[in-house]
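We close this part of the discussion by returning to an individual protein. Part of our work consisted of pairing the sequence of a single chain with a tokenised description of its backbone. The amino acid sequence and the backbone structure tokens for this protein are reproduced below.
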Amino acid sequence: MKLPERLARIAVYVTPGAAVADIGTDHALLPVYLVKEEICQKVIAGELHPGPLQAAKSTVAFYGLGNQIDVRAGNGLQVLRPGEADVIAIAGMGGAKIRDILQACPSVLKEVKRLILQPLGGSGILRTWLLSNGWFLTDEDLVFEGGRFYEIIVSQPGVPPEENKKNSGDGHYFESELYLEIGPKLIEKKHPLLISFLEKQIQEMENVVKALERARTPAARQMQCNWIKKIEFFKKVIACQLSAKPL
């Protein structure tokens, strides 16, 4: 089957043979792909909302994969028992929502070996939570599809390998929360879409700064100053990406 690129890229990071749970599965496209491509033998597909839940069940039935894909109704990781999933994928939600889902079920999360997360905004919030709760950043990716960018964050529990520490919260990149908003791994590997990704964010931030020009309150002035500093930092990252110089 043909997956949207944003989901196909998530599948790339799934450990072959792992027990996978797709939380917020929607139409269960990712679970079906993982089974049909023989990446995984079994997948748990969790969905809270009745409409998407029924759509997921219909998709699984259409492909005749009911014995391999277990569609479950429930909120977040509550559809899982501890040890049921080695890998958890969560896509299509804001970073703060994904954070809330992860921290709501510590007994389940404790047994997980890899997280593959695709936040729709709020990625800095999510990275900060991961690094503060025993997870390190294994990899990051960007996908451009349907006129928008999608971020992918891959994370594993434990102490990061020595060579990754500077990129995972113990050194250079952790000096500013802005690094975590952009993505330390994206910066490190000079992702080919990173400059376009940052330029789009700069444009949106400049619109906010312009909208705040009429504001007179001290709070609004401070907010405008913060946005300007963020724009300057993002431009610095772009300049470093275009040159051989490190940040």
Notes: The CA atoms of residues 73 and 100 lie 18 Å apart.
